[in-house]
Amino acid sequence: MVGSSRPRRRRRRPGITAGPVQAPPRDPDRVIAGVAERRLAIGLDTLDLCFVVALYLRAERAQLASFTEAQLEDVFAQVCAVVEPDADQVKKRGTHAIGRLREQRMLARVDGQGVVRTGEYALSRLATGIVEFFLDEDVLTRESLTVLTQTLRVGLQGILDAARRADGAPAWHAGVVAPLRVTITELVAGIERRQRGLDLQQEDFQAEIRRLLEADWFGAVDRCQALLESTSATLRELNEILLRDSSQLQALLHDIQDLAIAAGAADAEAAALRLMDQVDRIAAWGAARQRAWSEYFQYVHRYLRDVVRLDPTRALTQRLREQLASEAGRSFSLTVAGAPPFRLLRTVLPPRERPPVTRPRAPREREPEPDTGVDPQEVLEGQVRGALDGGAVALSAVTAEVTAALVESERFVAAGRVAHTVAQLTRATAARVRPWVAVGGDLEIEDWALAAPAARGGDR
Amino acid sequence: MTSRPGYAQLQDVLLDPEFPALDLALRRGWHVDRDAGAWYLLLTDAQDHLEAFYRRYGCELIHRSDGYFYLLPTGDQLPRRQLAVGDMIVGQALALLYLAPASVERGGLVTREQLVEQLVAVLGTDTLIGAFLPRKRRIDERVAHKLVRAKVTEAVRRLAGLGFVDLLEGDQLRLRTALLRFAEPVRGLAAPAEALARLVASGEVAMAVDGEGAGEGEGEGEGEGEGEGEGEGEGEGEGEGEGEGEGEGEGEGEGEGEGEGEVVVEDDEEPEV
Question: ipTM higher than 0.90?
Fold first, then answer.
């Protein structure tokens, strides 16, 4: 299982995000605001920088963990003698330089004795980082990459074994999470730091090629080619190592992740996931740099072949410059083919013919026609008359009879029409206070007394 | 015969899926170099077939040893045009940059600012303004500089349309091998005048007409009487129409820019054919 390069899907559970392993994701705005609030600043002139470099080299050579004040002053005096040999008051300037470095956290007092005795000072991580950047020590080489990846593999194998043995949260943390976050992360960061170093070195190579050509046009061809070849070979080798080793590292990390998921160790799973992303990034760097360098390689080779070798005395540049500067440069014009692009005609739709404006010939108003439909009022009158003829002597009786067949919703309207019709067909009398009489369902009306049937003959 | 087995006949070339686009590009004046990848391979492999093919249209498929192809009309069947003076100046400055070791450091990438610096270094500010704004009488220095920069940008854009440079993001340009065409008159050991006469005789270059400014117009005529000016009709004032062939010329100009440029017309009286 270990070391296999089978393709595997990376499982990313919700809530598990990939980022730098050392620290949880930080809010950039808050961090920037914090830096601004603390008014952090770094300012090193050449003398200060040389002083820091000298301290670094002295510590390295003499295996010093810290410097006494006398040693600091001694180193500064040596630096001053080289950089500014005419400087006065070296001791005083040294005191100021040490003060500046302390203010900027390049030097830290490590003895903790205060005024009891003279202090001991050590270079901080910041100062060490700056010096290492300028000394370009961390450039990725075949040897350093091989050693680093082998160490990584061994470390991950140990963590995998610890993960298999882990039987509780403390064991997971001590055996897996902590090593992943510290040891392995440091190793991966070491590779990335060396990658950046190699990037810088490539930039220097490109500038070096330019300088060589400017200094010795034709004579620089061989040296330029050697420089190109060596860098290409280095990149090719590094890429091969990265391709081979990154798959093994990924397999190990996958195994650790699987075990972490099975054990429910979310921290270990997240740490493994983040490291996988970092390993991916390292492998992608190799391919990208090799591709970019390949393009540059081809360009420079073409330049050396077509420009430098064909114009060993660099006369062409001079003659072209003279041509451009003189009237000759404006006296001629290159001929080029100039076929016009094809005309792509639009599809044109014929306009739709609009009908002419006309006036309708038929008369606008039609003659009235007799309506042969049933007059509802006549029907109602018939019903009311039937009720009256049947002997009804009260409006409520007529209304109840006429509206009995209607649905509830129509009865209220019909009651009004019945009252109107009754008033036309007979004579009604009403008391001052008319009684409310139910006429069926929920409907009640104010009742009228109607003339008796015998007395209605004259009314009609 | 240099054709590979796949191109045993002209028909095989014409059936190549890359051919239609390549053919159109060549006819529009595009220069195909090694960076063009598949197109360059196609031209290299089918060179014999295509030389004979284009000769029937009255033009030559030229292959320079620097590594680029282009189509040179020698008859009257395919329209041709001359680069404007401004384009020639910018083209020569770009060729100088191509030859400079400084551009090697960046893999052939330069910025427009570097181009203008090169022009100023070689020509001087006054000459540069005079070359691009020949008929301007009194003009504010700041305005003149702005106009020159705009005209340089326009010239670069037109040269990019012919395959001399690539326009990249931002202000950057990628220099291409075909720029060495601008150095042709000074490449050999012969005197430049002799070399120029030889190039004129072969139809590679034409002598500029007196009084021609550095404007954007590119005269053009074609046998079939269907000219199409591709130059920009710029502006206010003295600018006047684009070059066109007889009859139904069609201005395709992009009327942008600062305005006061004089548009160069190839030949007002008769379009070159």
Answer: no
Same domain? For B23 and B96 the reply is no
CATH assignment of the domain containing B145: 1.10.10.2260
- Report the DSSP pairing between strands B250-251 and B228-229: parallel
Q: Say whether B80 and A337 touch across the interface (CB within 8 A).
A: yes
CA distance A325 to chain B (A): 5
Neighbouring CB atoms inside 10 A of B252's CB total: 15
Q: Does one domain contain both B61 and B101?
A: no
Residue A44: both structure tokens together: 């090193």
Domain of residue B122 covers 85-186
B205 lies in some domain: no
CB A411 within 8 A of CB A440: yes
Lowest mean pLDDT among A165-174, A367-376, B62-71: A367-376
Tell whether the model's pLDDT for residue B110 goes beyond 90: yes
Nearest CA in chain A to B221: A338
Instruction: Tally the C-alpha atoms within 13 A of residue B60's C-alpha that lie toward its C-beta.
Output: 9
* pLDDT over 50 (residue A226): yes
| Alpha-carbon span B204 to B221, nearest angstrom | 17
What is the spatial distance between Cα A402 and Cα A400, in angstroms, rounded to a whole number?
Answer: 6
Q: Burial, A372: exposed, middle or buried (Cβ in 10 Å; 0-12, 13-18, 19+)?
A: exposed
Question: A46-135, which class in CATH?
Answer: mainly alpha
Last residue of a domain, one of B155, B186, B217: B186
Confidence of residue B7 (pLDDT cuts 50, 70, 90): confident
Distance CA A193, CA A187 (A): 10
Tell me how long chain B is: 273
CA–CA dist A154, A175 (Å, integer): 14
- Among candidates A299, A303, A323 on the partner chain, residue whose Cβ is nearest the Cβ of B192: A323
- Minimal C-alpha gap between A199 and chain B (Å): 14
CA triple B219-B222-B224, angle to 5 deg: 150
Q: pTM higher than 0.90, yes or no?
A: no
The third-level CATH classification (topology) of the domain covering A142-308 is: Methane Monooxygenase Hydroxylase; Chain G, domain 1 (1.20.58)
* CA-based nearest residue to B39, from B70, B61, B18, B53: B18
Token code pair at residue B79:
């329209």
**A131's tokens:** 């010096």
A291 touches chain B (CB under 8 A): no
Helix %, strand %, coil % for chain B, to 5? 45, 15, 45
CATH code at B63?
1.10.10.2250
Residue B224 lies in a domain: no
**B94, B47: one domain:** no
Q: Are residues B49 and B117 in the same domain?
A: no
Calpha distance B23→B14 (Å, rounded): 9
Task: Measure the CA–CA gap between A326 and A320, rounded to whole angstroms.
Answer: 10
Identify whether residues B37 and B14 lie together within a single domain: yes
A256 CB neighbour count, 10 Å cutoff: 27
The tally of domains found in chain B comes to 2
Examine the domain organization and report whether B59 and B94 are in the same domain.
no
Angle at A245 between CA A244 and CA A246, to 5 degrees: 100
User: Which position has the token pair 């384009």?
Assistant: B87
The helix (run of H) or strand (run of E) holding residue B158 is helix B141-160
Q: Do B185 and A323 touch (CB under 8 A)?
A: yes
List the single residue in A with minimal CA-CA distance to B218: A338
